[in-house]
Amino acid sequence: MPSTITPAADHHYHFVTGKLAEPMLREVIERLANEHGFRYTVEVMPITVAALMSASWLTKRLQVASDVTHLIVPGYLEPGRDELAAHVSIPVVIGPKDLRSLPELFGASVVASRLEDYTVAIIAEINHVPRMSVDAVVERADRLRADGANMIDVGCDPSARCPRIADYVTALVERGHCVSIDSFDVWEVERAIAAGASLVLSVNSGNREQAVHWDAEVVAIPDSPQDVESLDETLGFLMKRNVRFRIDPILEPIGVGFAKSLVRYAAIRERYPDAPMMMGIGNLTELTDVDSAGMNMMLIAICEELRIESVLTTEVINWARSSVRECDAARKLCHFAVKHQTPPKRVSSDLVMLRDPKLSHYSHETLDQLADAIRDNNYRLYADEHSLHLLARSMHLSDRDPYALFEQLMSQPISENVDASHAFYLGFELAKASIARKLGKQYTQDESLRWGMLSELEQHHRLQRRRRPRGQGMDQK
Fold first, then answer.
1. Which among 291, 463, 455, 459 has a CA at the least distance from the CA of 378?
2. How far is CA 369 from CA 365, 366, 413, in A?
3. Is the previous residue joined to 415 through a cis bond, with omega within 30 degrees of 0?
């Protein structure tokens, strides 16, 4: 992983690059130096592409002045960090593979690695359990736990009793899961508790008499969402009989009482300042046509500030398919924000998925200079908010439409080296670049797009292609 730097006025950063990247690197560093007030030098190695440097090759050519405090090298040199550090005897900072991401070394917060603490527990519901096999339920529960769930809620079918409910609960408990049972069927609840379930969703005036005998914690709810008086009566009944409970005043969907239900949660917290509480946030994420990450973040923030210690969520609808992971990231971020009394900004980008936290584009003039400096026929691809750019020796093509850009390329004499493999590669990369341009994401050739916590690394094909004959590679820098 790239290093991080806390810039200081007495720091002198020595940047190492290749010939092609020099103009772009100087453009980026000048902005950073003006912003952070550090000193710097740039050493251009006798090599066209910086990504081809190795640590052993670099140590034979480095010339680092005595007042340099940090050596900053491209991301491809990460395997040789120790060798470089032993050679220069100063901190070696591994920069990004794409120098446009260099500002992140100086602006990224280092607290993200400490986002481990949280107060909000996640109860992940597996819906319609009776329709699944025991093995399928256990497998799904294992995945939900890996994503951050603290408890697995067994969702029953209200229209039909589940004769095998004990089998499901037993299998989950034997697997080490904490289990809750979501049913108003007393028969199902009693057998689930006997098999090891420790929480019952939910209890109101209709079944609170039976709850006295369950020896389990229950979730107390009103008889109807607006009937707060019935909730008070159920809570009074449970407290007199020493039944453990957590309170859920019921989160209602948008359009049928959402805002009022938030007020209700705040009022219940004031009325019962020390009572455990729960919020069923799936009522909102599953019933709203919007990607769930932002909504989960806001609901977890409300829970953190109101000291609502648990949430119930599920992943039925496709736009909420990663809700447990989102809640896990959100609860840590919100806990950090509340604990340190600071907005949760520049702390973690795990939940920035549709777009990217920051964009860094080269100017058209800089790309023209790069095209003039290129001495080979390898293709470099770039994207900004206006256009896609394709560069090679003395050639700079641009267009918003990847098809039009490819047609421009095919009209050039250089296109003779575009065989089927090259065309596939360029098509794949241009598709990524087009998506990045439309959504406002950072595009880096031969690198995966960033999707926050959903990002997946791609195999690097560009470096493999450098072994092809001259003029048939796909280099980028």
1. 463
2. 6, 5, 21
3. no
The H or E element containing residue 269 is helix 258-271
- Report pTM: 0.78
Joined tokens for residue 322: 């990663």
Q: Computed from CA positions of residues 52, 53, 54, 60, in that sequence, does the dihedral angle turn out positive or negative?
A: positive
Q: How confident is the model at residue 38 (pLDDT cuts 50, 70, 90)?
A: very high
Please, are residues 325 and 453 in contact by the beta-carbon 8 Å criterion? yes
pLDDT in tens, 348-382: 889 999 999 888 888 888 899 888 888 888 899 99
Helix, strand, coil percent content, the chain, rounded in steps of 5: 45, 15, 40
**What's 143-196 look like in SS3?**
HHHHHCCCEEEEECCCCCCCCCHHHHHHHHHHCCCCEEEECCCHHHHHHHHHCC
Mean pLDDT (whole number) for 172-201: 97
Bridge partners of residue 312, in order along the sequence: 123, 280
The separation between the first and the last C-alpha atoms of the chain, rounded to the nearest angstrom, is 20
**276 and 220 in contact (C-beta within 8 Å)?**
no
DSSP 402-443: HHHHHHHHHTSGGGGG--HHHHHHHHHHHHHHHHHHHHT---
Asked if 289 contacts 282 with a C-beta cutoff of 8 angstroms, the reply is no
Q: What is the pLDDT of residues 281-308, one digit of tens each?
A: 999 999 999 999 999 999 999 999 999 9
- Backbone φ and ψ for 153, nearest 5 degrees, come out as -100, 125
- Give the sheet arrangement for strand 199-203, strand by strand: 245-247, 217-220, 199-203, 179-182, 151-155, 121-126, 310-313, 278-280
